[in-house]
Amino acid sequence: MYFPIRCFTCGAVIADKYEEYAKRVKEGKNPAKVLEEMDIERYCCRRMFLSHVEVMDKIVKYRKS
Ligand SMILES: [Zn+2]
Q1: Which residues pair with 15 in a beta bridge?
Q2: What's the pLDDT at 61?
Q3: What's the maximum distance between 2 C-alpha atoms anywhere in the chain?
Q4: Which of 6, 40, 51, 64 has a CA positioned 20 to 30 A from the CA of residue 33?
């Protein structure tokens, strides 16, 4: 799945923040700290980030060429 454009619950736009979030977490930072630094405070939005699994990189290997 792609990362959703908006939070399912409150409708806040979150897609524009995902790249920065993923980058910082990849650098080994604590996801909770990263979300705090990025002012994502509502727990409905936070779960969108924390529960997201990036499967597209795996799926794309099996595409028809
Ligand atoms: Zn939300």
Answers
A1: none
A2: 87
A3: 42
A4: 6
* pLDDT tens sequence for the chain (65 residues): 789 999 999 999 999 999 999 999 999 999 999 999 999 999 999 999 999 998 888 888 888 87
C-alpha of residue 11 to centroid of ligand 1, in Å: 6
CATH number of 15-62: 1.10.10.60
**How far does residue 38's CA lie from ligand 1's centre (Å)?**
14
Q: Where are the domains of the chain?
A: 15-62
Task: State the pLDDT at residue 58.
Answer: 85
Secondary structure class of 32 (helix, strand, coil): helix
CA–CA separation, 53 and 34 (whole Å): 17
